Amino acid sequence: MDNFIIRGGKQLNGEIKISGSKNAVLPILAATLLTGERCEITNVPELRDIRSTFELLNYLGKNCFFGYGDFVAEERGPLKLHAPYDLVRKMRASMLVAGPLLARFKKTVFSLPGGCSIGLRPIDIHLQAFKKLGAEISREKGNVVLTAKKLKAARVKFRFPSVGATENLMMCAALIEGRTVLENCAREPEIADLAAVLKKMGARIKGEGTATIEVAGTARLKGFKHSVMADRIETGTFMLACAAAGGRVRLSGVIPKTVDALTRHLRLAGVEVSVFKDAIGINSSGSRPRPVSIITRPYPGFPTDLQAPWMAFMSRARGLCSVNERIFENRFMHAAELGRLGADISVAGKKARIQGVETLLGAPVMASDLRAGAALVIAALVAGGKTLVRRIYHIDRGYEKFEDKLRRLGADIERVKN
Ligand code: EPZ
Questions:
Q1: Above 90 in pLDDT, residue 35?
Q2: Which residues are CB-neighbours of 183 under 8 A, at least 6 positions away?
Q3: What are phi and psi of 49, to 5 degrees?
Q4: 22-223 fold
Q5: Ligand 1: distance of its center to the CA of 273 in Å?
Q6: Is the per-residue pLDDT at 213 higher than 70?
Q7: Class of the CATH domain delimited by 2-19+230-417
Q8: CA atoms within 13 A on the CB side of 264
Q9: Mean local confidence (pLDDT), 370-375
Q10: Prediction pTM value
Q11: Atom 42 of ligand 1, nearest CA residue
Q12: Helix %, strand %, coil % of the chain (to 5)
């Protein structure tokens, strides 16, 4: 397993281009299962989760490959309908193949995704919604079996605006003739990117980005060409890295409005953020920020995926602030690891209290999930001395060429084989 060695104290300066969005690509890759025609996707980041999805799509019978930098998915024969445990357990987003396979073949079998370090990650919202469209659900040996004699357009109301459930049901409804109305949907920008793809495939969709999405499906969907949106969580992660370390950085190829909540909070903390058409500039002295509390919420609220990086940034705040995690039940593992670097953080249930400290000091720490790993790197950039970050395979799931980009901005970071 690889580790990072980071020597703190360097400011970040210069410009980097943000990669395509992991959380937009994953449902779009699943959408290729809705058609037997050729699909081409560009701006696909080189990430472990993307490779895991290729593996799953190829296992199911797709022929996925990179042609001249573009991702291509073709169909070489009948598809399998079972997403096996050893592929699903690696990545919860594998659940996203259920909607397309159910819609196209009226049957799918997939292993329960199992929990992960940030929570149980149940799938009840997905299953309840599939039932509303006419699916029957049964369980056998740790698998969920979804079958349907006929799927019918219906009105579905989610009990919580689940991102994955919204995406799964949009894809399923795209192949059901008639008007399906999804209510209390997630409003994340990745959902609008998926809707753009489904429209190119021949579905008629309106309301994406709002709480109510209408899908007028069709019996057959076409192949598509699509360039994936920029990764808003990578954008936010680098904004926070520069805010914490100090310096002047320009992030290009971004969609500024998708990080509005973070921009507002950074400005409250005393960081200068400049917004351009498709770029964001951060100008930070690297001094201790003003303490600013956050509550994570569904989009457009403060994103849960930036909660850990924000906590790293607030570790040196000039006072007390809190972090209230409202989306996942166990997303504070990074707090103890930040404590090993000298941060003063106490956790009680879904709330963490951060008493900012003057300095952090390098130490060996361990990543528990991809965003916690990014938070530890941010803290290590400002900690005195050397920090060893272990289990960075978590980081490789969601950040393309992370250390290369940081080094290009002036960070002293290297990847070492364990
Ligand atoms: C997506 O996960 C993202 N992943 C997550 O990013 C992100 O943290 C999350 O949305 C919230 O924004 C991808 O897009 C691939 P949810 P998803 O369904 O769809 C509960 C990252 O770091 N829930 O909106 O799985 C669930 O347990 C990852 O890139 C149910 O109870 O998130 C959680 O507490 C981490 N039943 C909450 O809802 C369900 O059926 C939000 O989950 C589904 C979800």
A1: yes
A2: 155, 156, 157, 158, 211, 212
A3: -65, -30
A4: UDP-n-acetylglucosamine1-carboxyvinyl-transferase; Chain (3.65.10)
A5: 28
A6: yes
A7: alpha beta
A8: 11
A9: 97
A10: 0.97
A11: 162
A12: 35, 30, 35
| Residue 139 burial (10 A CB sphere; 0-12, 13-18, 19+) | exposed
Atom 4, ligand 1: which residue's CA is nearest? 23
Contact between 172 and 100 under an 8 Å Cβ cutoff? The reply is: yes
Closest CA to 354 of 304, 305, 288: 288
> What would the DSSP string read from start to end of 25-89?
HHHHHHHGGG-SS-EEEES----HHHHHHHHHHHHHTEEEEEETTEEEEEE-SPPP-EE-HHHHT
Write down the residue that tokens 């469209």 correspond to: 133
Q: Where are the domains of the chain?
A: 2-19+230-417, 22-223
Please tell me if the CB atom of residue 93 comes closer than 6 angstroms to any atom of ligand 1: yes
- The two tokens of residue 174 are 């795209």
116 carries an active-site annotation: yes
Q: Which two tokens stand for residue 191?
A: 């959902």
The span from the CA of 327 to the CA of 160, in Å, is 10
Instruction: Tell me whether domains 2-19+230-417 and 22-223 share a fold.
Output: yes
pLDDT at residue 190 in the model: 98
